[in-house]
Write a structure and sequence with these properties.
Layout lengths: L2 H4 L4 E2 L5 H11 L3 E6 L7 E7 H10 L1
Parallel strand pairs: 1-2
Antiparallel strand pairs: 2-3
């Protein structure tokens, strides 16, 4: 068994709006959202992680 077998992790593209990331995180009830660059025919490349706290902080500032 591997981690991806246990729970889906929300993934977003680097240009994904913050509200869409929040929606993805909400649907999966995850406190984290992965920001990944979709590889051209290869695996996604992880660029970073967004936490719920950081996302909320950024959304409340705008």
């Amino acid at each position: 068994m591997r981690a991806h077998d246990l729970a889906p992790s929300p993934k977003a593209a680097p240009d994904c709006p913050a509200l869409e990331i929040a929606e993805l995180m909400g649907h999966t009830r995850s406190p984290l959202g992965a920001v990944a660059d979709r590889g051209a025919g290869g695996p996604d490349r992880l660029l970073g992680v967004v936490t719920a706290a950081h996302l909320l902080h950024q959304l409340l500032q705008t």
